[in-house]
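Case study 2.
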Amino acid sequence: MEPLGQSHRSVTQNRRPLIPTALQPSKLWSRLQDSYSQWRDKRVAAVHAADLDAHGRPAARVRMRMRSRARHGQGFGLEAVEPRLLLSADLSYTAVADSDFTLRFDDGTEMVQLVDSADYLQVHSSAGLASIVGDDGEIDLTLDSAGYGVTLRLDTSLTSALGVSFINISGGTGTDDLTLTGDGASGKGLTVEAEQITVTGTLTADSLSFTALAQSDGTVPLATDYLGLYLVADSNALIDLSGATLDIAGAVELMATTDVDVIADPASFGNGSLALSGLAVVASAEIKMHNTTLSAASLNAATSMDVVYQLDTSGQTPGDDGEDAAVTIVYLETVSSVTVSGNATLQVAGAVGLYANTDVDVSATADGGGADFGATMALTIVNLSTEAAVTGSAAITGRNGDDPDSVTVAATLGSSMTSSATSTAGGATNGDGSNRSQQRLQNPDGDAGTDDQVSTADGGLNFAGALALSFYESDTQARVDTGGNLRSANALAVQALATETVSTSANGSNTGDTADG
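Prediction:
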């Protein structure tokens, strides 16, 4: 049967000498041998019946043919020449809608199959697993959700796939949202890579590694409105184990990482009114264990938020000196969190580590040096949240009477924010209030209130030749405030560290003594 959908099949193979155990016949080989033997016996019987002489013996020409066959040793057998070793069974499939799939092992064909909720075959490996030698075989599935929500059940039949030690599942090139469940990885290692990974029901494996990675460079802006700004990146990495039961014999590694790297001139995003209003980046990296039941040898859960966000506007001479020559507005909102909450129960014998990290470098620069006159403004609005927490009634205890070796809960923030504006040669005059620099003087954060209007001891400012504004807010927490049981063979370590640098400067040195503004 040919697989349906956008798929391809391949089998990774390598050559090396086979050990004697590898020469054991497969089911297919045995069936072929039986069929050949039956055909040969019937043919010999027919020949004998037609060629017996008067004494009931084979004729001379038949005896000669039989002696020739004996010399050449004709028959059906297994020849161990140029052996090929199957290292992995590879499958690939691209979803075309929200889907429920099952990954299973068919004992009859010895194929790994991906079937849909109606038990209809979507794709299978192009070779069976019978030729896997030793315990180093792997099942590799590329499941591209293509932006749809995909649920994958690991069928218990996979435990019968002898010689397979790992099941590796990865998403495609876009944003993948994969939900996993099932006991099919029992006795095998399970690795999953996708932007968003969710577990429901029960999941069993020998070891577990989840990697959620979301990346954006702003080259494909979303062209949508966020708080009145032009959203150029919305990146979210998520591992959600809420409500699930995980029974893992060995180590559990959970890593959610969001990497945003936007370095550009705001004009590169177009001259539409939305783009000119300012640029926004929203990003999150989260691991959620709410009402989760987990049993493992060790647990390492870490989130990482890494943002480089730098916009630099060069001045362009406007129609008159009451207008803006260079305006840069940067908005950044991030969340990096690992939370164990609700009635979660973590039963771990080794080390338990919950780590949340944020590393941000953001800057807005408005350089009026290239313009004859007009106002300049650099506005930066940053909101950073970093949290590692055990809260609610969550419990961290031992497994099989063996308390965790250690428990560490840590949150770390490192940030640098810069807003810099330099004036134009001719400076600026008070305009009609329609330009962005004057609007932001009246209402810097753009919300409904104007209580944050820029002012001096003499009152509010109506205009400025060079204006730099910074609004920075951060929250870095590492906390254990659970009402549940928490045990550790060594001291509990709770750590929160924030290293922050904020710089805001408006420079009028480009403007001459006789200029306005």
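Confidence is low (pLDDT under 50) at residues 1-24, 61-86, 127-134.
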